[in-house]
Amino acid sequence: MGALVTMLCIWVTAFCLASPLYIFRSLKTHNIGLKDMDSLSFCIEDWPIANGRAIYSLFSLILQYLLPVLVVVMAHVQIHRRLRGRRRTTRKTPAILIAIAVTYVISWLPLNLFNIIADFSTEPILEEKSMTITYAICHMFGMSSAVSNPLLYGWLNDNFRKEFEEILCCCKKRQITKDTRIKNRKMDTELTALAQIEHTVTANTKTSQCSQIF
């Protein structure tokens, strides 16, 4: 129940945090006067206060990056303290916790820095094409944290590695068993054919011997 309540609070907080991007927008229409296109409509951010976008980016930096980093570090410290006194705890456990925290910090840092610099600068920091490519790269870095965590668990955790090896070994065993069955079937077919040939040769030999006797 505690996990469900926590997840619900996270979703409500995320919805509230993203809601200004939906609320403070307006549809702008510009007359172009082209032959196939008279006007062009697009949605832009329309903040009610000056520097609204910069203020929103600053709050997003605090709530989406700094606060989660603090929570992750504190949670991992508590986990390490509780596991430190157990016998089964290995040296890899702190390494896994540190690697996850460092990966999260590194993955989301470029995107947050890019948003802060772009929103607080009075002039465009890059050209439109370069800015789009830079934003895409920073966004990919942030999304990569969802991929890196399973890889870290699989690489640094012996239990995960053993499970993967068992799965791979089972696949290999199944393939070997399948190949063995195919080979056995071929051998049975060949032996059956040889037996039939031997039976035919033996029968012909007996027939020829009988004919010679008579």
From TrEMBL:
Residues annotated as domain G-protein coupled receptors family 1 profile: 1-153
Presence of the UniProt keyword Transmembrane in the record: yes
Keyword Ligase: no
Subcellular location as annotated: Membrane
Residues in the signal sequence: 1-18
Chief place of localization: membrane
GO terms for MF: G protein-coupled receptor activity
Alphabetical list of PROSITE patterns matching this protein: G_PROTEIN_RECEP_F1_2
One cellular component (GO) term of this entry: membrane
Stretches that traverse the bilayer: 54-75, 95-113, 133-156
Pfam families: 7tm_1
Keywords associated with the record: G-protein coupled receptor, Membrane, Receptor, Signal, Transducer, Transmembrane, Transmembrane helix
Membrane topology: Multi-pass membrane protein
Family: Belongs to the G-protein coupled receptor 1 family.
PANTHER family: NEUROPEPTIDE F RECEPTOR, NEUROPEPTIDE Y RECEPTOR
Name of this protein: Neuropeptide Y receptor type 4
Source organism of the structure: Papilio xuthus
